[in-house]
């Protein structure tokens, strides 16, 4: 199972919005609405941000939102804040069944 | 407080075996599937294995299938990962993660991880 494709890095200024794409195949992202996103700060465990493509767990800021079109899912962060600087990973259920993660995207807040 | 605490990570030689443990507390262990996820130093996340709430069904990543075995002991609120025929590419921080529900494939609670190093 190949990893989902994410850009290695994205950046934005405080207050701006950024979008991180996550591309898979019809056997994972495109075939199921079981896409999630995780945020990981250096030296910390990942944190669940989004599940079922566009649902936020309790306590997660509404500045984080998810969407999906075809084989590509996306995470949008609006009103960028300094504390958003972190690594972001998408993941998807697959037909195997297994779970596959994206390679991760490092977000830099300028 | 919901908590997961991993242990058992050490330096082991290629071809060796190791058993990781994860102690769960603060929630009804029986109600949730559990996972192992690993992260090689400086690399991304890799899902390793899943066990359902009752231990009746397990799934593995292709990279560990046939070498790793996941199990759980309800009486001890513990999750395990038996790792055999270890390779250098198995070196990673191994996280224990709680499924968000009965079996959702989402991880809402993570431990701090235990480090496995496979090296001669």
Give an account of the 3D structure.
The complex is a heterodimer of chains A (110) and B (120). Chain A is mainly β and 110 residues long. In chain A, 0% of the residues lie in helices and 44% in strands. Chain A contains no helices and 9 strands. In chain A, the strands form 2 sheets. In chain A, strands 1, 3, 4, 7, 8 and 9 form a 6-stranded mixed beta sheet that branches. A 3-stranded antiparallel beta sheet of chain A has the order 2-6-5, with no helix packed on it. In chain A, a hairpin with a 6-residue loop joins strand 3 (35-40) and strand 4. Chain A is globular, with a radius of gyration of 13 Å. The mean pLDDT of chain A is 96. Chain B has strands at 3-7, 11-12, 18-25, 34-39, 45-51, 58-60, 68-73, 78-83, 92-99, 107-110, 114-118. Chain B is globular. Chain B is built from no helices and 11 strands. The mean pLDDT of chain B is 97. In chain B, the strands form 2 sheets. In chain B, strands 2, 4, 5, 6, 9, 10 and 11 form a 7-stranded mixed beta sheet that branches. In chain B, strands 1-3-8-7 form a 4-stranded antiparallel beta sheet, with no helix packed on it. Chain B is mainly β and 120 residues long. The A-B interface holds A 1, 3, 34, 36, 38, 40, 45-48, 51, 57, 89, 91, 93, 96-104 and B 35, 37, 44-47, 50, 59-62, 95, 100, 104-108, 110-113.
Largest sheet of chain A: 6 strands, mixed
Rg over CA atoms of chain A: 13 Å
Structural class of chain B: mainly beta
Unreliable runs of chain B, pLDDT <50, ≥5 residues?
Answer: none
How many helical elements of chain A?
0
Main β-sheet of chain B, in a few words? 7 strands, mixed
Total beta strands of chain A: 9
> What is the helix tally of chain B?
0
> How would you spell out the order of helices and strands of chain B?
EEEEEEEEEEE
